[in-house]
Write a structure and sequence with these properties.
It contains no helices and 45 strands.
Length: about 700
Amino acid sequence: MRLWGIVPLLLVATALNSGSAATGTLLLDETFAGTSVTNAGFVPLNDACLTGASSAPPAGGSTLGPCTAHQTGPVPTIGDTPGWLQLTDSLRGATGGTLYNRALPGNGGLQVTFEQYQYGGTGADGISFFLIDGAAQLEKTGAYGGGLGYAQRGAEPGVADAYLGVGLDAYGNFAVDFEGRGTGCPADQKPPSVYQVYDRPPNTVTLRGPGNGDTGYCYLAGTGNSTQIGTDPDGNKLYGSSLPGSLRDTTLGAAKRTVRVTVSDDTRPTVTVEIDFGSGFQQVLSKKMPTDAPRTYKFGWAASTGSDNDVHLIRNVEVRSVVPLAALNIVKQVDKTETQPDVYEIGDTVPYQFVVTNAGTSTLTNVTVVDPKISGITCPRTTLTARGTPNSTMTCTASHTLTGAEISGGKFVNTARARGTSGSGAVTSNESTVSVPVSGGILHLSKKASATTAKPGDVITYTVLAENTGDEQLRTARFTDDLSRVLDDADLVGTPEADIGNVTYTAPKLAWEGPLDAGQTATITYTVKVKSGGDRRLGNGVTSTTQGSNCRSAQDDPACRTTVTLGKGHLTLAKRADVTRVRPGATLTYRITATNTGDGPLEDTSFTDDLTRDLDDARYLGDAEATVGKVTYRAPKLTWRGTLQPGQKAVVTYSLKVRRGGDGTMRNTVVTSEPATNCPSRACTSLVIRVPKHDKPVLSP
């Protein structure tokens, strides 16, 4: 018995014994005998139609309509009731299916009983009945022909999210691993080896197991055996079957076979198939499933014809649980409408479904679902009609985004319960619990730069290490590195590289993502070339939303960020004259040396030499020169401007012609606006030259 919940529902009956009708709760009752089907959950595909219908189906119910276009062979008369669900007429190459795309609870097991009719042709292909995971969408059948509308056939996929396929196979090739059937199946899930291509066991019931797309749908059991009983007109070998009767007949009146498929309420259930050939049910197959049952089920039928054919009909469908359900039953499950990961991560959103069923005989009102850890649960209605009716079951939905605080033992566990009101008072459901695995991976990031200081032209290489320090795989680890505060001082060169995962760059952000096994480290590198013009500081960090990350923001951990500073220049000025004393008529030469004694460039730096106090005693000769940069003169000031790299110097020279008439003293000052200098704006080297008032020899320099 499946116990879904921290406090499981106590069931009042034991599992069904083989060969007996279920005593459980009626979930669905549809005869297909009328002129329309009110239950909108039944969805027709291809040739499927309702023989009792003579006009288009009314709004609000199933879209099963009249069989006007499908009248080949001895089909029932259009509009006669009681009628049937017709899957195909006997036209060659016909296909038809009917799906029930509404989830039914599986926590009490499931028993489906229906009448099937195969007649009027040459015996092909047959009818399949199948179950899928009720958390997924059931929108199409599998491949027809040998796939019988359940399994794959060549490039045609099988039913999505399939759990069980029951082949009521008149022709026999549903039992054969051919056309891709059996792909990926273990050795103990293979049919008898004599079944090859079109060598087959006709008149066989075959069970095939879970599958998806082109994989699975493995052979589980069948009534076919390895005893050859003859050949078909094409020479293909035919093998025997243990069925006590034929699945088909020549006329509608003789073709009724009632089928009962029981899936026990065990976690890994046993499937039993019984058929009433006219004298009571007889068990024809029983097999324990190789995988656990889904929490809920959806189901369908499919049929087809080929070069051989038959008419295929269904009638009087009844679906019950194997054991009784609580008066108000709930099954909570992860919504698989979209593909879900095997293991979730912190930050992932988990979609949930809540399948709520009225198992009582009166209508329930004010029906709601409560889950303490999930908010925003929505239901299509608040009323559930009596058991077995089309609106006795509904599916409510909600979603939840995982946070680290609520994960325990690598799982997120939560429990739901439904409530409603009946004529006799409040009704509370069983509890239903879902546990989803959450990765135990932990992302630790560290970032380093190849230098802490730099100058224009230097190349800096950044290395980011992304390590999974947890004990489980990180399915998708990721981080972002924003280069906004780097690119004002540098350019990205080359292509970023990663030894694991993928790294991309969309200015100004670099992004990496990839899987990391426990203990695995990814190395991501990129390079920038330093340039001038920014704020002289390359500062940035990595951030990640991956679970357990130490860098949710770049400020969380010093390991998340780096800083590279550009060195600052320092302007050192020195000025001297070629003599200290001079007489009128002589030439005086000044030499100013500007040196960058810092560890960063001096860009567009300058100094000014004010000659105001020289020009009363001398005349500027207009011969200023500079070894680096450019020197200009606009009376009374001489100005030099240029760029100096660390250690570089500029030498400026100019001359004055001394004359009489001044104050006898030549004094001037070199000044600069550069903040880092030995010569701030109010002081610098000042040279004084005393001019003799009487003729005396000029001192040699």
